[in-house]
Specification:
Beta-lactamase; six-stranded mixed sheet; five-stranded antiparallel sheet; alpha+beta; 28% helix; Peptidoglycan synthesis regulatory factor (PBP3), Domain 2; 394 residues; 2 domains
Length: 394
Amino acid sequence: MKIRNIITALLLSVSFTAAAAASQTAAVGTEPPSLNVNAKAALLMEPATGSVLLAQNPHEKLAPASVTKIMTMLLIYEAVADGKIKWDDSVTISEHAAGMGGSQVYLAAMERQPVRELLKSIVIASANDSAVAMAEFIAGSEEGFVLMMNRRAKELGMADTNFVNACGLDAGGHLTSAYDIALMTRELINKFPEVFEYTGIWLDKIVHKLARGDEETELANTNRLIRAYSGATGLKTGSTSGALYCISATAKRDGMQLISVVLGAPESMVRFDEAKKMFDYGFANYALTLGEPANTPKGSVKIYKGDVLQTDVMIKNQVYCLVQKGKNQALESKVEMAGYISAPAEKGAKAGEIVYYYEGNEVGRSDLITVESVKRASLKNMLDRVVKGWFSFS
């Protein structure tokens, strides 16, 4: 199927935060060539900026199969980060979770597994039983977890998405789009890059500690790109009779990561071939250029009525800009500092901005923040300054 309505390649830069889902764009101005993507929908995204480089039917609502589990994985990582659960917590497997069909690791009802092992089996082997067990552990029920999934999808701007279950088995109304899958993939890998510790594993195992003795289930990575494509880092495959063959794949070369989404490919290998084709296009034509790193010193700001007269400032977030290869990749910058900030001021208080330009156009900016807290000046501080100023004037 030929790509229709290929989205213009984008120049995009953004002061990156892990939760950022929206961004400003500036068009490169040249439309990329057509690619023959043999799937219902496809999309190529650069996740540091959110730039969409290629898209075919990006908002068509389709069944995603186990690619659904990217949202499940994201919520697991967020629950750990928020202190709601711990990696070593023991999860008791319910009858409902143990009874999941499709891809599974054959968990037994009342079996207990650590959160860490269940996540591993979800990421590597796409285990439906593990996904549902974790859904119940986090939310109390799969239905409650699905509410969390849809709420998080809304927060990420996934307007084409409605989840019905935690694992991706075909169900009426369980739909998303290539664009929305890229959004949740972007959020997961930007916010929790440690997921790549699991996505790159080819073979592993999970141990079942049962009354009759220990048993093992082999975990085999469902993502063939891990061994077949240079730079492949993950992420999640899926296939059902309704969804056909799907993947949200990630790869990294020369410091630039890409997300390649394929939905509704007619055969298993086709999804991998089409993902590779989009990766090849992205890596051949684009590069990521960066502003100065976070925490880089950028002068100082005056303090009004503080216990010090000024304090140093630094860059809060690094700015990323996607450019076409073969063009000048240098960014220019300008510091816009406040005349002063008033005491008291906490560490990290905004004192100005650094603005980045590419070929004369603004492409991103970051706050400049104070490196330390500043207290309000005491009466003695103020009197000392008056006396020193009087003697200096005299």
